Amino acid sequence: MVKKKLRIATIGQGFMGKAHSNAFRQAKHFFDLPFELELALLCGRDQQSLETMAARWGWESTSTDWREAVSRWDIDVIDIAAPNNLHTPIALAAAAAGKMIWCEKPLANTIEDSARMVEAARGLRTLVWFNYRRVPAIAFARQLVEQDRIGTPYHYRATYLQEWGNDPTRPPNWKTDLAQAGSGVLGDLLCHSIDTALYLNGPITEVSAIQKTFAQNRAIDDATLALARFGNGSVGSFEATRYATGAKNRNSFELHGSNGAVRFDLEDLNRLEFTDATGPRNLQGPRSILVTGPDHPYWSNFWKPAHIIGYEHTFIATVADFLFALDRGEPFEPDFGTAHRVQLVLDAVARAAASGSAATV
Fold first, then answer.
1. Nearest one of 357, 359, 313, 343 to 107, comparing CA atoms
2. Are 263 and 273 contacting, i.e. CB atoms less than 8 angstroms apart?
3. Does residue 49 register a pLDDT over 90?
4. 3-state SS, residue 224
């Protein structure tokens, strides 16, 4: 059977450009995809490194002007992996051209811009790279919630801890530039924690927050802490920082309910801790589950049980799930609408931190 082709242009040649390129190449090796992906155009700022990356990952052509990607008739998908301040102009132009749009998080730097993106892309297929939803352990946690294995939720706790902000040898980059990033850990790290919380525990209605900048002459937040009320009556706490010495990429959460609890840490990506509170009390306690099958999310697509997977597989599964939804004409999440709801929470956190008072979402 001849598969329909989707020709992709990725805008961004950094860390995310590499992660996306790998996913586009690898997805067909793990999933029987309904589409054939063609890596048509790679856009970035530096022509020499662009050519090196294009040769390594098999991109057909390169450009230092993202507008070329949007204007080309033979491009089906615009994949935005550029700094945050470029998300909105690229997405608006791509939407006007009728392209599918895949965009890195956060969706935009302001809720006004994210709302414009949602409206512009109405009727188009969109994807936002909240890839942690495709960690098998997190997808399995969602199944446990849907099966009422957690019961009535009481507490949600999330931390996203990194240490690189405290490295004096690390040169400044766009993530520490307010004009490009829009914020610090709020948009870079906390947005992942918020998306996971919405995915597992539902809408957030109110937040209180504080923010702190440790580096001199820096305009972005190096640390953000927030307390939250959820629509289901539970409460939550969130912490994101780049000054957590000893933490490389510690994205973790806990959800505690009347029937049980789950706990996850990205630094131990293949395991989910689950506590069943419905059995005999003398047998209750956390169990560490190796979520690589059998009967776990994506276990039949990747390796045999106990053969662990890695960070890159979350992007691979995201691509595959989007393509299956596209083929079936079904909705896909996270899309622009999903990401805008995350943006609304981030905006409330920023407002609460600035005012010193609780802010509604």
1. 343
2. yes
3. yes
4. strand
Identify whether the C-beta of residue 185 lies closer than 8 Å to the C-beta of residue 234.
no
* Residues recorded for the chain: 361
- Long-range contacts of residues 267-275, Cβ cutoff 8 Å, at least 24 apart: 269/135, 269/137, 269/308, 269/309, 269/310, 269/311, 270/136, 270/137, 270/308, 270/309, 271/137, 272/137, 272/138, 272/140, 272/141, 274/144, 274/149
Contacts of 293 (CB under 8 A, 6+ apart): 299, 300, 304, 305
**Angstrom distance (rounded) from CA 105 to CA 345:** 14
Token couple for 69: 């990607």
Neighbours of 324 (CB within 10 A): 16
Q: Quick check: 1 pLDDT over 80?
A: no
Q: Taking the domains of the chain in order of start, what are their residue ranges?
A: 4-131, 133-309+339-360
Class of domain 133-309+339-360: alpha beta
The whole-angstrom separation of Cα 54 and Cα 30 is 23
Residue 198 near residue 156 (C-beta atoms within 8 A): no
Which amino acid, one-letter code, is at 181? A
Confidence category of residue 237, pLDDT binned at 50, 70, 90:
very high
Task: Locate all alpha helices (DSSP H) within 33-185, ordered by sequence.
Answer: 47-57, 66-71, 87-96, 111-120, 136-146, 178-181, 185
Chain segment 287-334, per-residue pLDDT in tens: 999 999 999 999 999 999 999 999 999 999 999 999 999 999 999 999
Contact 41, 59 (CB under 8 A): yes
What does the alpha-carbon distance between residue 214 and residue 220 come to, in Å, rounded to a whole number? 10
Please state, in angstroms and rounded to a whole number, the distance separating the CA atoms of residues 334 and 148.
23
Contacts of 339 (CB under 8 A, 6+ apart): 103, 105, 106, 107, 114, 128, 130, 195
Longest dimension (CA), the chain: 65
* Separation CA 215–CA 240 (nearest Å): 16
DSSP 3: P
CATH superfamily membership of 4-131:
NAD(P)-binding Rossmann-like Domain (3.40.50.720)
